[in-house]
Amino acid sequence: MRVLPACRLVRKAAAPLFLLVVLALPAHGWCAERIKSQITHVLELFTSQGCSSCPPADDLLARFADAPHVLALSYHVDYWDYIGWRDTFGSGHNSERQRAYARSFANKMIYTPQLVINGLYDVVGSHAEKIRRLMAKSSLPAATTPISLGVKRVGDSIHITASGIRTAPGEPKPMLVLVSFADRAEVSIERGENRGRTLATTHPVRSWQLMGMVGEDGMAVDMPLSSVMPDGEETYGCAVLVQAVRPDGSPGAILAATQMEVDPD
């Protein structure tokens, strides 16, 4: 295993493209929700509390997350848990998404911190200037025709709609992906490379799931609010992505995205 100055690498392992993850959690009373639409950039950071190279990338993502048209997501992976600290947000499912991107980019290794921009580019997550240059090269909507994507709360449900999607004959239909995340968290690290530090993470992913493939007929889905907004006193959110699928089944460009955050009572 090699350690690069700005990132940590591990060998890529074969794995299925996407695994479905649904949290079955109790209902809760929620109040105001905030929707971020007209998103131009989706930033997916693959990070770990057990990686000493990751905190600068976590801090940088927090700054990008404040931009009005940026959706920022922190996917905490689990493959650094063995070095002494089990990531409190770590998930093998998040690692699977990163491995799927490795197939897309023909990367022989997976690493942290890795930032994926709009499903098109990957870069070391702490390289601010390079990230900004790549963001300038890629802006949603990436589709040839505008896609209408919506998410809203209706009582105790989340109503998701997607329409206006066109695919060329023979091309795979894009997929609809639902991601749930916490707003922000600080964790005191007791062991491992970051021992003694308190690390902050922005929009740590709690679960993500493939809702289906979306064609010209569009899609409308209703989900229980409790499935993505767990019981508690913190702000939680969900994001909906329309993402192209490459011929080999790996994830491609993100074509549209929207985000909703819900505050507790």
In short:
This is DUF1223 domain-containing protein. The chain has 3 helices and 16 strands.
Structure explained in plain terms:
Helix content is 13%, strand content 41%. It is mainly beta and 265 residues long. The protein has a single domain (18-264), classed as Glutaredoxin (3-Layer(aba) Sandwich), CATH 3.40.30. The chain has a five-stranded antiparallel sheet. Helix 1 links the parallel strand 3 (41-47) and strand 4. The termini are far apart.
CATH superfamily membership: Glutaredoxin
What is the ordering of alpha helices and beta strands?
EEEHEHEEEHEEEEEEEEE
Q: In the CATH hierarchy, what is the architecture at level 2?
A: 3-Layer(aba) Sandwich
Q: From the alpha carbons, calculate the radius of gyration and give it in angstroms.
A: 18 Å
Main sheet specs: 5 strands, antiparallel
Give the proportion of residues in helices. 10-25%
List the helices and strands and how they pair.
Layout: E1 8-11, E2 30-36, E3 41-47, H1 55-65, E4 70-76, H2 92-104, E5 109-112, E6 114-117, E7 121-124, H3 128-137, E8 148-154, E9 157-163, E10 175-182, E11 184-188, E12 198-202, E13 205-213, E14 219-224, E15 236-245, E16 251-264
Protein name: DUF1223 domain-containing protein
InterPro entries: DUF1223, Thioredoxin-like_sf
Pfam families: DUF1223
